[in-house]
# Entry
Amino acid sequence: MTAVWSVALITFKEGIKNRVIFGIFIIALLLFAATTVVITFFMRDIVKVAVDLSLSTVSFAGLLTLLFIGVNLFGKDLDKRTIYMVISRPISRSEYLVGKFIGIVLLALAVVVFLGLLSSVPVILSKRFYYYPEARFDWWIYSIAVVYIFIKLAVVSAVITLFASFTSNSFIALILSLVTYIIGQSTEGVKLLLASKVEKIDVNPVLSHMAGIAYYIFPNISAFDLKTQAAHGLSIGPSYIIWTALYAVFYIVIALSIGALAFRRREFP
Amino acid sequence: MQRSLISAILVISFAFIGSVFAIPKVSLERDKLRQKEGVGLVMPSQIAQIVALEFKGLFADAIFSKAMTYYGGKLIRGEKATEEEWDWIYRNMDTATDLDPYFLDPYYFGATNLAWGTNKVKEANLLLEKAFRYRDWDWTIPFYLGFNYFYFLQDNEKAAFYLMEASKKQGSGTLLPTLAARLAYQGKKTENAIIFLQEILKKTDDETVKKVYEKRLNALKGILFLEKVVAAYQDKFKAQPNKLDELIAKGIISEIPQDPYGGKFYLDKDGSIKTTSELR
# Structure
């Protein structure tokens, strides 16, 4: 376990030291600043727009961190051949993989905590700026939404770990992770679209079958998106929280196990 | 070395001056192009929901503000929106509220502008009915719906229903049940409309919207005044006046109030007060 932890810490430190993270933080800060200007263009639901922008910024910055730094943290060891140093030590390959995953998740956690706290500033300002009695907002639900951004990023980290375990370079892992994220965001929507039978278009049964399979294979990332609930102060039931959190845990375990299997059999050139 | 530096400076300054000249031309051409472009296609909601990924709220904000700025630009240039443009605005509001069905602004913008700015009361009510399903805590939605049914569609029964629904929700105040009860009686349309509008005005702080309501309120006050005078005339002379001018001739009033919409009030054959501007 200590071996896993030390890999995780090294990965985390390496990620935090990366210069790209400053770029991402600057983008996030600019977006927060822009939020305070953009909300003045709206009429009544101003707090909602501020919440939309703030939470989207946190989520976007987290995704950028994972895709540009997280993927590279894997690639570096392979590209620079430092992996030989690691696998010659008394640490199993699975432990190494899990350690890397935990390191990336820690990085995502740091980003979400820092930007999550910062994201409350435009929301507080918008609440000061305009009060509309029929608008609902609740800090408790807002913080649940922030936690769910982190859960989503943890699932994406697991996907990145899975792809990094068998691809030969980090660019391919990046593309595969990005595609998985996009598919994961839209499987639910596509499934609903096919089920609703819009405008009586005949859907090819093979296609709708494939959408059903994709729904089970790819992570349903849209389940972790609670921005609308946060923006309008809509309550989230405890069963929703329990089931989506369990789903995330199961998915992470599956992705990491397959990744570990692939990584154990992998031969390094 | 020096020669290459001088030529580089020359090239840079030449290009810089060129670009300074070009920038205003580009924005001018872009403006021309935009005006020709007019309204574009609206992405169907089902597609937008998939394309927006996790940023559905942001997409809704963007679609809404695009339509709003387009309409605002027309207002500033003093142009009237065409039927096609109103349709485009409605479909944008519909898509924005499909992406975020709790988003108040498109409902509010659509409901006020579609019903008041043009004759699209049906579309305004479709939006408001969607809002009524989702924003189930918000009393203002059934209140606006009730007004549209009462004022534009002359459906007092439905208006009373929505007003009662509004009065059940928190924050609606004490006037709504009374107003709903009044609607159950036919007649007194103008008076009820004035009460309705005064109540709406209290809740409005946007200056442009306020002006729209105030204009209508003043016109209605003029109509109510003339209705009362005509009733008094009937009581006195046991006959209806043929023209409003008769009221002045008989010395009942000194002048006919101005229609804020620029028309002239007249007495219709059925005895009701109308105006040549049709309140538009």
Observations:
- The two ends of chain A are 28 Å apart (CA to CA).
